[in-house]
Specification:
single chain; 3 domains; 10 helices
């Protein structure tokens, strides 16, 4: 059995042991760095990644944390990791193709390890008008499949769908009300729930 490096969790002397219980020698730092770089290049070849995503990928492959950090610094200096550019691309793509609102976009970026100031900057690219337009598109698309559904159920489903996509409650109610009215449907139950 060959040892590929590790974080030392629960391993004797931090390096592990083979099936017979013999301690394995520490991993060769040069080889471990080489593996770490290969992991990062493979990850980046598939799609852009944040610094945290790359670090987690290396740790999952049992690269020592200090080696992972060393490789990340080198990738940073080479310009191969750019969380700001990642956030910009992510926001544009997820808003356009998945219809996500600003709140959902911000949550996703934070989960990916993007710093708050970069999240704020990237999400600001989606202005109020663009967010509302995308919400309207989503409501119109959903309405096509709601023939025969009563008004209250439509409203509940549509507002819920927008909320799950990260749209604020006030905007969701307004868009649903206006879209139902544009179709000549009565949105009076919505009017009772939300003031004009």
């Amino acid at each position: 059995m060959t040892y590929r490096g590790g974080r030392g969790r629960g391993r004797r002397a931090g390096f592990g042991s083979d099936e017979e219980g013999h301690d394995l020698p520490p991993p060769d730092p040069v080889e471990e760095q080489k593996r770490a770089k290969e992991i990062c290049f493979t990850q980046l070849a598939a799609q852009p990644r944040t610094r945290l995503e790359l670090k987690n990928a290396m740790l999952r492959k049992e690269i020592a944390e200090d080696i992972a950090e060393l490789v990340l610094v080198k990738f940073d200096k080479a310009g191969l990791i750019d969380d700001a550019a990642f956030a910009e691309i992510w926001v544009r793509s997820r808003h356009t193709y998945n219809g996500l609102g600003r709140r959902a976009l911000a949550m996703e970026l934070r989960r990916k390890g993007v710093a708050d100031e970069l999240v704020t900057e990237a999400v600001a690219a989606v202005d109020d008008e663009a967010e509302e337009d995308r919400a309207r598109e989503l409501v119109r698309k959903k309405l096509r499949g709601m023939v025969g559904v009563d008004e209250t159920a439509k409203i509940r489903r549509l507002v819920g769908a927008l909320a799950r996509k990260g749209y604020a409650g006030g905007m969701a109610y307004q868009v649903v009300r206006e879209e139902l009215r544009s179709l000549g449907e009565d949105a009076s139950s919505l009017d009772d729930a939300v003031p004009e």
